[in-house]
Amino acid sequence: MTESDSYERMEREDLEQIQVERLQATLNRACQNVAFYRDKYERLGIDISKVKSLADLAALPFTTKEDLRDNYPYGMFAVPLKDIVRIHSTSGTMGKPVVVGYTAGDIAIWTGLVARVLRGAGVTEHDLAQIAFNYSMSSAGLGLHYGAEKIGASVIPSSGESVAKQVAVMRDYKTTVLIGTPSYALHIASYLREMKIHPDELRLRAGLFGAESWSEAMRDEIEAGLHIKAYDNYGLTELIGPGVAFECLERDGLHVNEDHFIMEIVDPGTLEPARPGEEGELVFTTITKQGFPLIRYRTGDLSSLLPGDCPCGRKTARMKRVAGRVDDVIIIDGVNVSPSQIEEIVLKVEGLDPNYRIIVDREKGVDTIEVQAEISGDFPFFDEGAKVNALCRRLQASLDEGLGIRTKANLVERNTLERSEGSKLRRVVDKRPK
């Protein structure tokens, strides 16, 4: 067992003591070096010296993505730029990107955390890990690359290659572990079916997928299409990148790396702590980051805490896989609908490919929701219109019953909808006037 792994099996009382000590150091560093925190706490009359327990954390205000954007690009850095050795950022599709700086110490911690993620899924120095994440301003590709090298795995950085080239590399190089987004894994599985390549012609045995919320139904689809065990992992560029939480071999929730992050779950409406087991918004405080510390950061991701210890022996808190985002929840006729609910329904309808799009619009003052799904390559599209219509009605009925609202189903030809090419895929198109 490595020194870092010892934290995963530490008794709760001892772990919380370490969290408090690291929290106090982080608060001091943030208030000394980040004007945003210093000015805000002074304005609110907050005395950080009074934070002596995890419960005291609740007295501190939240940090939001808007706060980070308002301080673009370097306003939230806690060290001089000369001490920053790496810069990553979010995509910026919804506004200014969030720019994150890493010191050499941050990179070392990050590498160790990602190594922990990979070991949790059983990856070893004997594996050949093919990383299909884009190596870009996003943190996913490089973060997982360094972690895989840390444990001695052979890394194949296949970022940016076409799906055909990805599969060719898997076959020729004898890849054993695929790392990327779940939607891209589905894209690869679809390509194998289309090319009539049996998954057993590959050496793949496991896949680590993240950067998107994905359902158990999608996990089943990936595993059936690639003949692998699929593992979830969670992270955000703002926090550190991949390495915040991960599934172990038990795949019963994601272990949070609590020696580096303090997790809270709050009601996104009231911002009060969620009840035990209740779904809410994930809030994280970094307690070892030097370059870019964050205090009570609202992630916008929805999850809940799982009770009890994991059979694997780790004692860290476990969260359920992310169910979606606060801003992805669609309200139709007063009913909350999440993309993950729709995904579960689409994937259960035989005759459909696991590729879909959700279009939300407003007609005559009434919100509408349309689900577009691709017909499977094995299903006749033009030749047997009656069967296609029956399939569409079946999807329509499943959506209406499963969601409890009136929806519109629309079937499209295979390869019509956007597919992941290694980066995060957004499936919801909201056309409603802002």
Q: What does this 3D model show about the protein?
A:
By secondary structure, the protein is an alpha/beta fold. The protein folds into two domains: 1-328, Rossmann fold (3-Layer(aba) Sandwich), CATH 3.40.50.12780; 329-430, ANL, C-terminal domain (GMP Synthetase, Chain A, domain 3, 2-Layer Sandwich), CATH 3.30.300. The chain is 31% helix and 24% strand. The protein contains eleven helices and 21 strands. It has helices spanning 3-8, 12-33, 35-44, 65-70, 104-120, 140-150, 163-173, 182-194, 216-226, 339-348, 385-403; strands at residues 86-89, 99-102, 128-131, 154-157, 177-180, 206-209, 229-236, 241-247, 254-256, 261-266, 280-286, 297-303, 305-306, 318-319, 324-325, 330-332, 335-337, 352-363, 366-375, 408-412, 428-430. A nine-stranded mixed sheet has the order 4-3-5-6-7-8-9-14-13, sandwiched between helices. Strands 10-11-12-15 form a four-stranded antiparallel sheet. The longest helix has 22 residues, at 12-33. The radius of gyration is 22 Å and the shape is globular. The termini are far apart. 43% of the residues are buried.
The total number of structural domains is: 2
The CATH topology of the largest domain comes to Rossmann fold
Beta-strand residue fraction: 15-25%
Architecture (CATH level 2) name of the largest domain:
3-Layer(aba) Sandwich
- Record the strand order, biggest sheet: 4-3-5-6-7-8-9-14-13
Radius of gyration: 22 Å
Count the helices. How many? 11
Q: Low-confidence segments, ≥5 residues, pLDDT <50?
A: none
N-end to C-end Cα span: 53 Å
Shape: globular
**Main sheet specs:** 9 strands, mixed
